[in-house]
Amino acid sequence: MDEDLNDGVERHELRLRVVNQPGTLHVISAIFSTRGLSIDAIQIPPAAPDSGTMDITLRFQAEPARRTAIVRMLSRLECVIAIA
Q1: All domains in the chain, ordered by first residue
Q2: How far is the first Cα of the chain from the last one, in angstroms, to the nearest whole number?
Q3: Which of 10, 17, 67, 71 is most deeply buried (CB count within 10 A of its CB)?
């Protein structure tokens, strides 16, 4: 869903599979905050009670290099299992 905006800024969408535990969303949002980025939308469908994981879809705007940095930082988190 990458869409080009002004000044090289694009709209991005990331789908994360994460560990379903307290603090996961906080840690993920802190990555964006420390990079000076806002999350435009978050979707979290109901997770199966015994699955231990959940899916999160994030939409945000950033230059391609900043998106790459965000993906790299997210992939280092223990709570993030997969990024698409």
Answers
A1: 3-83 (3.30.70.260)
A2: 11
A3: 67
| 3 state SS for the chain | CCEECHHHCEEEEEEEEEECCCCHHHHHHHHHHHCCCCEEEEECCCCCCCCCEEEEEEEEEECHHHHHHHHHHHHCCCCEEEEC
Name the residue with tokens 């997969």: 82
- Summarised one tens digit per residue, pLDDT across range 12-60 is 999 999 999 999 999 999 999 999 999 999 999 998 888 899 999 999 9
Task: Calculate mean pLDDT across residues 58-73.
Answer: 97
